[in-house]
Amino acid sequence: MLKGFINFFKDLITDRKVIYELAKNDFKAKYTNSLLGIAWAFMLPLTIILVLWYVFQVGFRSSPVDDIPFILWYIPAYLSWQFFTDAFGSGSGCIFDYSYLVKNMQFRVSTLPLVKIVSSSFVHFFFIAFILLIYLIYGYTPNIYNIQAVYYYVCTVVLLMGLTWTMSALAVFSKDILNIIVLITQVGFWATPLVWAPSGMPEASQIIIKLNPMYYVCVGYRETFSEQVWFWEHPALTLYFWIFTLVLLFIGAYVFFRLRPQFADML
């Protein structure tokens, strides 16, 4: 298994241009038949942000959270979740999307989930710049804490690799997996503190919520832009996240590589 990981990372370096080109083409292909093209990739998150801002800040007149305007408190966590759900859903179906490459014995199929993750990253990078712009409009200038966005992006990518390796391999044998993923992400939106703060909940409930690895990522993005907290100020939560994520990564790799020889026959 360890040798397989070493070879995988070596191939990532060797094939980085191929992966980037596949990701770029994948991103373009999603919107080639629509009138507005790739603009749709940005319109959906912007529309949801606008609607939730209107509902909570104008309709419900939500007060600032920890002295931060609601929209500034909400956007970083939501956009990190949007990146996760988009990459999780598309990455889990990558074997079907690239069935012609799966049957190519020269191509390392294990990089396909990463292609989908990189494809989703293009929109995510745009929205990180969007977050900084919104903060500037509200009078908040960029600061050194913002560089943590790179760290939490890496956290999300590693978590996604473990999940998409597992789910993409299982989906080949049952497409119900893709429907289960939709269900998980729908429930996860409300189970993750995106539009609500967990601080008012009982301590036992907070512990349960923190078992969700996306709690660490979403709250981390929020702290990166609005609360100015370093990730190492949560040592227990950081340790839990990386233990959970690395175990999931090894499980995903094991499942994917064990099932990989049967992909071509099942497609």
From TrEMBL:
Lineage top rank: taxon: Bacteria
Keywords: Cell membrane, Membrane, Transmembrane, Transmembrane helix, Transport
Gene Ontology CC terms: plasma membrane
Molecular function in Gene Ontology: ABC-type transporter activity
Transmembrane intervals: 34-56, 71-96, 117-138, 150-170, 177-196, 239-257
Localization terms from the record: Cell membrane
Keyword Transmembrane part of the UniProt annotation: yes
Domain ABC transmembrane type-2 per the UniProt entry, residue ranges: 36-259
Any single biological process term in GO: lipopolysaccharide transport
Entry-linked PROSITE patterns: ABC_TM2
Bilayer topology: Multi-pass membrane protein
Listed InterPro entries: ABC2_TM, ABC2_TM_bact-type
Primary subcellular site in the record, as a coarse category: membrane
Pfam families: ABC2_membrane
Family named by the database record: Belongs to the ABC-2 integral membrane protein family.
Protein name: Transport permease protein
Organism encoding this protein: Eubacterium plexicaudatum ASF492
